[in-house]
Amino acid sequence: MSQTISPVLSVVPTRALVDETFKVVVENLPPASPVTLHALLYSEDKDYWEAYGHYVSDHRGTVSVAEDMSLGGTYTGKEAMGLLWSMRPEPGSRTGLRLRKREVTSPMLVHISVYSGHISEGFRKQSPLASVPTERWYMAPGVQRIEIKEKGVRGTFFIPPGPGPFPGLLDMWGGGGGLLEYRSALLASHGYASLALQYFSPGELQSSDLKIQYFETAFNIIKDHPQVIPDSIGIFGLSLGTVVAIYLAAVSTKITPRCCVCISGHHLYPLGTALNFNPKLEKKRLVTERYDENNYQILRDVRLPIPTDLSEKVDVRKIKCHMLLVNGDDDQNVPAVEAAEDIAQMMRSGGNLHLLTTLTYPNTGHLIEPPYSPHFRATNFIVPTTKEKVISLWGGQPKPHSDAQEDSWRKILAYLHHHLYSSTTPKAKM
């Protein structure tokens, strides 16, 4: 009497940081057997996200996601992490969703399953051949999470495990507002004391008076922490956070960042206006904002053409710290690539171009996140100044955008390590 051998699914490791790779292998299948590998995540917003690839087992009855080709699904080809980066809301979900981890002290639970045959829908109604739960963490074991409410500053400070002291980072997200902790938790997992800064709440931009002193105070909270190296602090920004980072690096006389990482931003902020509200730009927005065929809002034209008048932008010729610009050439929210070219031109004329490094990625949008995060071409957004609900077009295509997230994160970590961990003491030479 022959006994049927059940397929064996392994995911290694089953518990990892979100920027770590895993290996997914199925064994004990019949040779040349069509199967579907599927990843399922139930988000904190109570939505199901999924990704899947169609495979055929080899002569040994094995499928390896890292080594074999996906013939169809949410990704195709040899994609070791396709089951994560190609995730999208399950068919029938609400529109304009974005997957973000709010509670970093718990993991994202992703169930990896294998199904018989090549299937493309109704996964939760079918029984898999095998299934493995995996944990994806932003916060490594031993990272401390400290809520900050001092000197008027709101945020969360993440301290790496170990005795320290560590380099510090001021981490700022964009115009959606609120407190987002996941990137800071991940940066702390890589050895940086990172303060996720809340500088306005959703919908309060016009009433929230953003002054440079707020950011200087936040920077100094990091600097004064006993587990931080006081002269080794950088600034990390995305979108509006990048505008603030560039402004601080060029204008502030109170703080001296060692370096800045600026994702998908610009320097087009007129001095003397409120950091959060520019009436002239608001009028222009009403004329220049566009909508695509899906009625998704496109805002990149609002700041084009790049002004030649120096009073309309931050004088980046005054920047004295190293600065890394990370941009996608399909950013539909801000003209990041055009702004980067102007920044380079201005810094060349100011004699500080040697401080600038620029990474530009093809077919990549505005929301450049840590690796293996799903790509969001368009998501729900509340316009900060009008509180209008729209679907904002961010741009990018899933595969190149995913590649850009992976490559840029690796280069960002190397950049931070070089500038914040490098010794300032000259080493003796033989």
Question: Keyphrases for this structure?
Answer:
430 residues, eight-stranded mixed sheet, 20% helix
Layout of secondary structure:
Elements: E1 8-12, E2 15-17, E3 23-27, E4 34-42, E5 48-56, E6 63-64, H1 82-85, E7 88-89, E8 108-116, E9 130-137, E10 144-150, E11 153-159, E12 166-172, H2 182-189, E13 193-198, H3 212-223, E14 228-238, H4 240-251, E15 259-263, H5 279-288, E16 290-291, E17 297-298, E18 322-328, H6 336-350, E19 356-361, E20 378-382, E21 389-393, H7 398-420
Parallel strand pairs: 2-9, 12-13, 12-14, 14-15, 15-18, 18-19
Antiparallel strand pairs: 1-3, 3-6, 4-5, 4-8, 5-7, 8-9, 10-11, 11-13, 16-17, 20-21
In brief:
The protein has 430 residues and is α/β, with parallel strands linked by helices. The chain has helices spanning 82-85, 182-189, 212-223, 240-251, 279-288, 336-350, 398-420, and strands at 8-12, 15-17, 23-27, 34-42, 48-56, 63-64, 88-89, 108-116, 130-137, 144-150, 153-159, 166-172, 193-198, 228-238, 259-263, 290-291, 297-298, 322-328, 356-361, 378-382, 389-393.
Task: Give an account of the 3D structure.
The structure is a single chain. The relative contact order is 0.11. With 430 residues, this protein is an alpha/beta fold. It has 7 helices and 21 strands.
